[in-house]
Amino acid sequence: MNGAESLIKVALAAGVDTCFANPGTTEMPLVAALDSVPGMRAVLCLFEGVCTGAADGYARMSRKPAMTLLHLGPGLANGLANLHNARRANTPIVNVIGDHATWHQAADAPLASDIVSLASPMSGWVRSTKSAHALSDDMADAIAASLTPPGKVATLIVPSDCQWDDAAKIATPRAAAKPATVSDGTIKRIATLLKSGKPVTILLGGPALSAEGLKTAARIAAGSSCKLMVETFAARIERGAGIPSPARLPYFPEQAIEALKGTGAIVLAGAREPVAFFGYPGLPSKLAPEGCAVETLGTVAEDVVGALDHLAEAIAAPKSVPSTQSKLPPRPSGKLDPVSLGAALAALQPDNAIIMDESATSGGAYGTMASAAAPHTCLALTGGAIGQGFPTATGAAIACPDRRVISLQADGSGMYTVQSLWTQARERLNVTTILCSNHAYRILQIEAARAGNTEPGHNARTLTELSSPEIGWAQIAIGLGVPGVRVETADDLVKHLENAIRSDGPHLIEVML
Amino acid sequence: MNGAESLIKVALAAGVDTCFANPGTTEMPLVAALDSVPGMRAVLCLFEGVCTGAADGYARMSRKPAMTLLHLGPGLANGLANLHNARRANTPIVNVIGDHATWHQAADAPLASDIVSLASPMSGWVRSTKSAHALSDDMADAIAASLTPPGKVATLIVPSDCQWDDAAKIATPRAAAKPATVSDGTIKRIATLLKSGKPVTILLGGPALSAEGLKTAARIAAGSSCKLMVETFAARIERGAGIPSPARLPYFPEQAIEALKGTGAIVLAGAREPVAFFGYPGLPSKLAPEGCAVETLGTVAEDVVGALDHLAEAIAAPKSVPSTQSKLPPRPSGKLDPVSLGAALAALQPDNAIIMDESATSGGAYGTMASAAAPHTCLALTGGAIGQGFPTATGAAIACPDRRVISLQADGSGMYTVQSLWTQARERLNVTTILCSNHAYRILQIEAARAGNTEPGHNARTLTELSSPEIGWAQIAIGLGVPGVRVETADDLVKHLENAIRSDGPHLIEVML
């Protein structure tokens, strides 16, 4: 047994059985070990940003880490943007990065770079393996680190000689840590606050966005005068008919400030204290009104659903709340725009779908209508690093082969990791991409206007328009092995969406907005 | 005048007039300044790896830096792999990375990350601007740092308030540093070595690979018994009829060791001491034979061409050497393979072409034939981080609108930065891509076999084959606005290559190998 085989063995023993990979020469012993040690599903991605984004989607859905296998500093670098999103989503991921043999590192060969410096900003845990003997312990530690609540990106750097040298043992997987229980004192303090008559907003995030968490929160709201909101970009939230759907904290700071106006206390339940996504002249970083208390019921690393449950009990909240069902809009016809697009998707999405929403400005209408759709799981772009949608949809489909994945994807962001479509084709994944083609980085055009640049000049237009040439998304999809079609009316969208959802394998529908 | 405008003004004053950009909200004042201060050509790239690779190609050809404009840590991260290649090529590049407003950084907003930690491994100079007043001085320093011999990647991080706040002044561009002259003592020492009768190999690299440098080296070889070799991956080398074409140091260590066998001394002229690209069991890091002296005539940061000139004089080398002209193979017909592909390109490439060679295993035959082709400039993948070819071809075409660029591109690497094709279409660049479609990461299959994995199992095949599904490159090109065609015979390749070279704008020819 060599080091590489000991790494794969301990991964399998710990339940890590899926590897999103784009290896190179320094990972060859690990590639061989993926065959000599049976049990790991290896998924080739044609760019590392696909590997890391897929690992994120996989773990958001399966609640266990996948492994990535990446090649040296540049291979990791290509995956960092989606590791950034995973870090903000608190997703457990175990990156295995090959490195030059320990004795070759002093040579500063062309592909050498400071991998630790690259990995650290996007990882909660980083280690370089020192020997083949240490490798399986290091891997066991990496997996345990990734599972430390609330979930972390763990990066293990493995020199190639530590892969091919003999290894004497396989480590025992570490016991998985559990989220800490919220103290009775905290529950009492928040219960008192809720009964104080002060206008309280509970901001729900992370684990509180499960169906159970949202239902318990709705009971608390019914049993007190408090308001509920959910964080702006949820790693994973359950939505649809029968599931309470509190308003989302708005994205732009002016609107968020308006939404929080009059709040006397914000109670954080798995969410972070609300801050502006960007700093703007004359607007604050923190969005809570002046003088508003910010209290924590539970952090994302704690058992927030349990805490909500105790809180509901403490305030003697009703045992259940009738669900206020919003009405589905009719199937749209005629013009294609964000409203008819949203209506088509909300009407047609099958039960228990997974919606990966990186629709940016095109998905606003859908976001409102989705609460009336069939129950589903929605995954958002968590860290603002565009290019998460395609890969995360890919990983989610691998985690949940029995569920339909719908990837609601903006065009500008989609181009970042378009290579994902090939993996969807190769693995025959049931992913339907609705590609929102508005031929612009629309959010930047909005931001330019907000900054007073209302009549953008040549260069500002050059840098925010995606027309000239127009991108042919259906053609690109076909080139990557995914059936693609362009639609220009709502009727055609309905027709092709119905078809795609009914058929097996990936599809891409290019929606001309 | 705000900080952003002061930055653009000092850039233009220093001769930096091209900006490869993919901005976001934190760069909006700089985007506005690209219009309020006229003179900068802004080129939109649909992924940051395209921006940085294009800046590399631009500066390799124009000998002056371009500016990149990237969005926060994740935007920079997406560009790091090609910055790695640029660092290994000693290319001057000035990255301008927007950051959150100074007063917003404590909020740890979703897109915040440690940009310095990300930038440092791939940069020779990094600074974070502290105020709008300091910005133009910082930019002048960044440009000067990038031009410090041999050329550096300089990264300037600019918080958004430093862009929008008022700036009082525009800095004066710094005087550009010149490469240091090699001392007479060194020239004498190497001249003595050449006359000593010891078998000497001069390893040429960096600036020594200009036509002048290669001709002077050929005179030195003619006037002594020394052998010439060129470094394995040259950032830029002049090749073709009339230009001496010493053998390249082979890529695999066994072959490099064989090529250097019997050498008593290696003289480095703009090249680094030869080391193995990767470490392999039983093979050394350093490739020079045991006991072989390694002497430096001049480093890549010194005036190596001047040093070669002095050396030629010191050994009284002949004033010129008749060029040994190798014969062009005839235009190929019949089967498409690396040999017929190489023959077609060598026969048809026009005078003064720029060849961006990221052909990996498909380009070996062409590499040998190219010495007989029309004189041209060849750019190689310098740092081993695949995905450089498409972007670097794009930047080279922008630097040299009067020259034809031919992008000889492997399929696996090409998929990394395929978005480049859109920029080629938008900017109507005269780039002809020859896409070598062999449906595999062939180099990895070779590496697996070298490591003894001669009968790869399911996972090893999964991770190295690009078939299933086959990638439709011509379709992808068309989807990105570039005319694309698939060819399956050498005759068709010749026909379409002739057409593409004669017509304006970009073309892609998918060569089925």
Structure characterization notes:
Two copies of one chain form a homodimer. With about 525 residues, chain A is of the alpha/beta class. Helices cover about 40% and strands about 20% of the residues of chain A. Chain A contains 20 helices and 18 strands. Chain A has a seven-stranded mixed β-sheet, with helices on both faces. In chain A, strands 2-1-3-4-6-5 form a six-stranded parallel β-sheet, sandwiched between helices. Chain A has a five-stranded parallel β-sheet with strand order 10-8-7-11-12. In chain A, helix 3 runs parallel beside helix 4 (about 70-90) and helix 3 (about 50-60) crosses helix 14. Chain A is globular, with a radius of gyration of 24 Å. The mean pLDDT of chain A is about 95.
What does the secondary structure layout of this molecule look like, with pairings?
The structure is a homodimer of 513-residue chains.
Chain A: H1 3-13, E1 18-22, H2 28-36, E2 41-44, H3 48-62, E3 67-71, H4 72-89, E4 93-99, H5 115-119, E5 125-128, H6 132-147, E6 153-159, H7 160-164, H8 184-195, E7 200-204, H9 211-222, E8 227-230, E9 237-239, E10 247-248, H10 253-260, E11 265-269, E12 293-298, H11 304-314, H12 338-348, E13 353-358, H13 364-369, E14 376-380, H14 389-399, E15 405-410, H15 411-414, H16 420-426, E16 431-437, H17 442-450, H18 458-462, H19 473-479, E17 484-487, H20 490-502, E18 507-512
Parallel strand pairs in A: 1-2, 1-3, 3-4, 4-6, 5-6, 7-8, 7-11, 8-10, 11-12, 13-14, 13-15, 15-16, 16-18, 17-18
Antiparallel strand pairs in A: 9-14
Helix pairs in contact in A: 1-2, 1-6, 3-4, 3-14, 8-11, 9-11, 12-20
